[in-house]
């Protein structure tokens, strides 16, 4: 059952400007693991990564219905890539199943996050499918 869906769109140039104005912005919005992953990228790919994570965290907070604050803090949300390259979202204390999609086009990044509560049968089916991969 879907609990929430959130989406966000962000200008990559806007995030670049914020990074230039506020040196602590990166450590405010990204976890240590995300900062490490970002440091492995350069130029446009670095900016897309940071903007994508910012946007995905905003989308998560919208799916939750609370915005960023007490129930969804920047540092509670981590989005890293699976070995396949697909982004995966983890949230401290979140027991529901989370899905995230991040896409870039020109100067924009767009994200969507879905929060689902799976039935016992759905969890078993998912676990079985993941073993086959």
Automatic annotation (TrEMBL):
It comes from the Bacteria. Pfam families: ACPS. Mg(2+) binds at residues 8, 58. Its cofactor is Mg(2+). It is found in: Cytoplasm. Keywords: Cytoplasm, Fatty acid biosynthesis, Fatty acid metabolism, Lipid biosynthesis, Lipid metabolism, Magnesium, Metal-binding, Transferase. Residues 4-112 form the 4'-phosphopantetheinyl transferase domain. It catalyses: apo-[ACP] + CoA = holo-[ACP] + adenosine 3',5'-bisphosphate + H(+). It is an enzyme of class 2 (transferase). GO terms for molecular function: holo-[acyl-carrier-protein] synthase activity. Its main location: cytoplasm. InterPro entries: 4-PPantetheinyl_Trfase_dom, 4-PPantetheinyl_Trfase_dom_sf, ACPS, Ppantetheine-prot_Trfase_dom. Its EC number is 2.7.8.7. Belongs to the P-Pant transferase superfamily. AcpS family. Transfers the 4'-phosphopantetheine moiety from coenzyme A to a Ser of acyl-carrier-protein. This is Holo-[acyl-carrier-protein] synthase. The lineage of its organism: Bacteria, Bacillati, Bacillota, Bacilli, Lactobacillales.
């Amino acid at each position: 059952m879907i609990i929430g869906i959130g989406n966000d769109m962000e200008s990559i140039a806007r995030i670049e400007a914020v990074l230039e104005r506020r040196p602590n912005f990166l450590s405010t919005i990204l976890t240590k693991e995300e900062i490490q992953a970002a440091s492995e990228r350069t130029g446009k790919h670095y900016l897309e990564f940071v903007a994508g994570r910012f946007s995905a965290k905003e989308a998560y907070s919208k799916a939750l219905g609370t915005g960023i604050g007490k129930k969804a803090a920047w540092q509670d949300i981590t989005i890293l890539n699976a070995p396949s390259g697909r982004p995966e979202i983890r949230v401290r204390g979140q027991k529901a199943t989370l899905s995230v999609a991040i896409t870039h086009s020109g100067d924009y990044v767009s994200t969507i996050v879905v929060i689902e509560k799976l039935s016992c049968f759905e969890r078993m089916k998912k676990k079985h499918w993941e073993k086959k991969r």
